[in-house]
Amino acid sequence: MITFIREIIAAPVRVAAWANGFLRLFDPIRLAEWTWLLTGDPADGAGVVVLTARGKGVDAARQRCEAIFLRRPDERIAAAMAWVEVSQGNNPKGAAEWIRRSRAAGCQDGAALLQLELSLSEHTEGDDFPALVDRILSRNDLPGHLTRDALLGKARVLFAERRWEEARAIAERILVIEEHAVARWVRWVTAQAAGDGGQAQVDYAQMTAGMPPAVLWGFEALGWLYLGDAGRVEAVLNRRTDDGKPPLIMDRRLADYVRSRHGEVYGREDMN
After folding, report:
1. Looking at the 3D structure of the chain, how many domains does it have?
2. HEC states along the chain?
3. 228 is a domain residue
């Protein structure tokens, strides 16, 4: 009942915030703050964090998030700040700290936090990526897009174990539902492993349509790395876009390879 009353009181502010998206009459951060103060809804608190980061920078967002999270510990608020740390602050360690704090505060292990953790675990050291993938796939209360991403992560785990047919089955399960460039990549890798050049060509063409060149080459290099063809990995890594960008380094496996061969990691994905 209290929540309902708060929403009724906050309704005019929400309407003003919606209208402000077109008219730009008010400070959007201030409108978001009013809504948060009236409702106490974690989603509104997360909105304040994101808008503060956009308007005032990461440091200001950190300070605001500390106060909001203290008032209402919730995984959506922690996830919002963690995404800001990654996307604007280029600070995966800071994002991981918000995941830790959320769990330490007893917050729900919800979709927003798990999506972030899945993304981070592909890029940062010390994370048990296979265990996280299995934990997500063991749940039936998560949105479909998160389950799909976890399945694609499972395909990478299967690649490392050279279980090509099981990985191909995952890709085909996804492609029955939707066209997805990374699922095409999984099937391209498995087609190469099976020596099926025709299928590999079809899937590569679909990958080309669904990915910018630097991303495409990053996945291609990673695929050849799983397949054990260092020569083709190097050939792909030597490509450059018209404006000089190298292939994106897609995950820890490829980053470790580049570091071992070249001494540094270039073109690292910024995870925006």
Report:
1. 1
2. CHHHHHHHHHHHHHHHHHHHHHHCCCCHHHHHHHHHHHHCCHHHHHHHHHHHHHHHCHHHHHHHHHHHHHHCCCHHHHHHHHHHHHHCCCCHHHHHHHHHHHHHCCCCCCHHHHHHHHHHHCCCCCCCHHHHHHHHHCCCCCCHHHHHHHHHHHHHHHHHCCCHHHHHHHHHHHHHHCCCHHHHHHHHHHHHHHCCHHHHHHHHHHHHHHCCHHHHHHHHHHHHHHHCCHHHHHHHHCCCCCCCCCCCECCHHHHHHHHHHHCCCCCECCCC
3. no
